[in-house]
Amino acid sequence: MDDTSPGVRLPARTLPSPTSISSEARAALDRLVDADGTPLNAKHRMPEPEDYDGWIRMKTAVDAQYAASLKGLAGTLHASVETIQVGDAAVHIATPETVTATHGAYLDLHGGALVVGGGDACRVGAQMQADLHGLRCYGVDYRTPPEHPYPAALDDTLAAYAHVLNHHAPSNVIVGGRSAGGNLAVAMLLRARDEGLPMPAGLVLLSPEVDLTESGDSFEVNRLVDVMLPLPLMSANLLYANGADLSHPYLSPLFGDLTGLPPTLLQSGTRDLFLSNTVRMHRALRSAGVNAELHVFEAMPHGGFLGGTPEDLELSNELARFVRTRLSGG
Fold first, then answer.
1. Residue 219: inside a domain, yes or no?
2. C or N: which end of the chain has fewer Cβ atoms within 10 Å?
3. Which 8-state DSSP code applies to residue 78?
4. Which of 285, 269, 279 is nearest to 21 (CA)?
5. How many other CB atoms sit within 10 Å of the CB of residue 1?
6. How far is it, in rounded angstroms, from Cα 329 to Cα 262?
């Protein structure tokens, strides 16, 4: 929106970390802004969609950052991991030390703006889900642009889902996605339904990127308020789409026919740039007759408070409860 557009004009102001959240969550928000109040992540601009070399450099830099951050998790994860090849994608199969649902499986789709988040980050994400749920977790290391634009990631995700169905009954499978992975989770199930595959027992969408047109209200209201994801991702969306229509349901599943999707848990926060994505998806699922529950956390930015806060623990407990209920036939 430019300065000539009609709308509510806001005065310059500083938004403090609210006292309505835990001290740990407030500290997490404060760590993500610099001395002048600018979100640290707002200083990193994405390349233009056509800047192939720029995207390669960015992916290399982000992978290095992820690798450094993952060192802090060493020794805290217990699931073992085996990596296999399913079609063109690597799939990291994480098995927890104690399996609580012998026949259960969790298909995990990582975030990363549809461009980054694979490799070690994907593998660790699978371990985290396996440990949380006591289930075998399949982390899909799907191909990403600029080398592999749409529909490569969707193809990989569907192939992985078919692989899981070859080893587990649909009633024993949960599909989950974070951010960009939430986009792929819903788009994959729409395509799976279109191709005659059965639906899983449940669907978990954590701040899902289900509208690549970025038409929702929170893309303006929470711009720069979300310290984790302060700016829209349109450049990455266009890179991923590679000329395809951003409003097509396989790219923006919010606009698809959601009839027949499984019971769904959705999560967001009041400071999440993708809050509109999440609440609109919840309403669309409800309108389609899907059993859907929505959890919006106070002042939570995109992706949560980086773990370790009471709010993050509460969210983990909700996820574990939902998965456990769905796999028990509830």
1. yes
2. N
3. -
4. 269
5. 9
6. 12
Q: Which residue range is the domain that position 276 belongs to?
A: 23-327
DSSP state of 15: -
Length of the chain equals: 330
Within-domain flag for 11:
no
Contacts (Cβ under 8 Å, ≥6 apart) of 30 = 17
Task: Classify residue 3: in a domain, yes or no.
Answer: no
What is the number of structural domains in the chain?
1
Tens of pLDDT along 47-56?
A: 999 999 999 9
* Confidence (pLDDT) at 272: 98
Work out the average pLDDT over 30-36.
94
- 10 Å Cβ neighbour count for 98? 8
Share in percent of the chain as helix, strand, coil (round to 5): 40, 15, 45
User: Residue 191: which CATH number?
Assistant: 3.40.50.1820
Q: Supply the pTM of this predicted model.
A: 0.96
Q: 234-238: which pairs have CB atoms within 8 A and are 24 or more residues apart?
A: 235/46, 235/47, 235/48, 235/49, 236/46, 236/113, 236/114, 236/115, 237/114, 237/212, 238/49
